Amino acid sequence: MTTMRRQLVVHFLVVSDLGFLGLSLYVSIFQREALTPLSDLAEKGIQVHTIVAMVFLFFLWRATLSVMGLYRSKRLLKQSAETLEMLRASIMATILLALITFLFHVLTITPGVLLRFLCLTALGLAGSRVVMRQALKAVRLRGRNLRQVVILGTNYRGVAFAKSICTRPELGYRLVGFVDDVWVGPSPGGIPTALVSDLAGFRSYMRNQVIDEVVIALPIKSFYDQEDEVLQICREHGVIVRVLSDLFVTPSTSAEIDQLGSAFVVSFYTIPSDVLQLGAKRLFDIVGSMFLLLLFSPIILVVLILVKLDSRGPAIFAQERVGFNKRRFRIYKFRSMVVNAEKLQAQLESSNEAQGPVFKIKDDPRITRVGKILRKTSIDELPQFFNVLKGDMSLVGPRPLSVRDYSGFNKDWQRRRFSVRPGITCLWQVSGRSGITFDQWMRLDMEYIDRWSLWLDIKILAMTIPVVARGFGAA
Predict the structure, then answer these.
(1) Closest Cα to residue 347, out of 334, 355, 359?
(2) Do 322 and 443 have their domain in common?
(3) 370 and 222, same structural domain?
(4) Strands (E), 123-275
(5) Cα–Cα distance between 318 and 329 in angstroms, integer?
(6) How far apart are CA 302 and CA 44, in angstroms?
(7) pTM as predicted
(8) What Å distances lie between residue 90 and 52, 103, 128, 289, CA to CA?
(9) Residue 232: which CATH number?
(10) Sequence-distant (≥ 6) Cβ neighbours of residue 75 within 8 angstroms
(11) 47-52 contacts: CB < 8 A, separation 24 or more?
């Protein structure tokens, strides 16, 4: 797509997005009255400060949508990822609307209006992108709006990328060929395999060819000087350069381009990195823990009394645990053992029934009478909602382990469980708890980290209720 046509598409998207936002706001406020002629609605009167607020709001929306990257090229982005971008943009637009409402005291914007606006905006923005994608797909499949691309390197990564774009013609890429001294990779089969230039002749090749993008697939360590020269040549010709981000063999890793000061960096993530979802998770933790503390407050009060009456010592037990990125914190529980339980543990090490570094005894002699009931019902963990409020823990996440247990870890891959905030419940909690091996437990934690989403958290919380009610696997 030429620069002029690209700009026209961007202008069209900007106008349509702001149009959807304005229409969504109008319908959200007036609902059924939205079908009433504007002249009739005008008779109700609109205050000047409201008009000023709306004008300011549209400028904010325009700037925010641009900063969020909604008008960059989405040619290589999956539709599901773009839909998620639209949802984030809708949420941000709603937050800005709520902010303007508060600052300018716009009485017509109520919580109900905000909710309707969010739903309508999300549908409008996401729907417009689906239509745009289908239209561009149809154009590209007819041989229009194509981008000429060459790939620097004939290794496995270069060939794999070539196959990925050649098998998806809707992306609109036309592979011209490869740049390399000799063919070193596997036989590609079914895609252009021409060596259009060697590395030394790339500058001369670019002077006389129509090339829109260059993809670098060569390893950096061995070809740094050549790649640096290619970047310089492409800069001089104004050609887009893409560097394949799988520079290292890192399973379950995502990569993002960030800017630190004046430098651009490739960031590799082996843990959830979506700021919006993580923020929503934290908000969910705060609201959820406050609600549950209020809900269980009568039980908490009764248990405090029962623990004090049952045995000597404080009702709340605090222990140092290993948390997020191995930070130490004090976890709170109802005391279910005698006061000197930690000192007695050394005498019971030979009776440990658990595999791995953790310590478990089915009929632990240190547990009090009330403690047995508390552990069986998991009521002893209710004070951990205070840990969630403090930010030391989450409602869902790998269970926090004691310093003693952490010291017994002998496999580094297991330590990745500490790269997320520990939780009150997790996959281990709903998959057998004390009935599964330590190695299975650790793999469940890795599965949780790799699959994490807010929906997974909600499912785990829902699955925890019957598991706790039955006391399954509690020890």
Answers:
(1) 359
(2) yes
(3) no
(4) 147-152, 173-179, 195-197, 213-216, 240-243, 254-260, 263-269
(5) 10
(6) 58
(7) 0.62
(8) 22, 20, 13, 27
(9) 3.40.50.720
(10) 147, 171, 172, 173
(11) 49/104, 49/105, 50/104, 50/106, 50/108, 52/104
Q: pLDDT, tens digit, for every residue of 63-83?
A: 888 888 888 877 777 788 888
Task: Give the contacts of 449 (CB within 8 A, at least 6 positions apart).
Answer: 270, 271, 272, 398, 416, 417, 419, 420
Which residues of the chain, if any, have pLDDT below 70?
Answer: 1-6, 32-49, 245-253, 255, 258-262, 433-435, 471-475
Residue 401, classed as helix, strand or coil, is strand
Residue type, 305: I
What is the rounded CA–CA span in Å between residue 349 and residue 269? 38
Is 172 in a helix, a strand, or coil?
A: coil
- Reference 278, options 462, 420, 416, 443; nearest CA is 420
| C-alpha to C-alpha distances, 370 to 39, 344, 364, nearest whole angstrom | 73, 19, 13
Q: 165 CB contacts (<8 Å, ≥6 apart)?
A: 149, 171, 173, 175
Q: How far apart are CA 183 and CA 155, in angstroms?
A: 8
Distance CA 401, CA 358 (A): 8
CB atoms within 10 A of CB 255: 15
Q: How far apart are the first and last CA of the chain?
A: 64
Kindly state the tokens that stand for 217: 């697939």
Is-contact 282 303, C-beta < 8 A? no
Whether 418 and 293 share a structural domain: yes
- Nearest to 34, CA basis, from 113, 98, 93, 118: 113
Eight-state DSSP code of residue 279: H
Chain centre distance of CA 377: 33
- The domain in which residue 368 lies consists of 275-470
User: Is residue 85 located within the same domain as residue 210?
Assistant: no
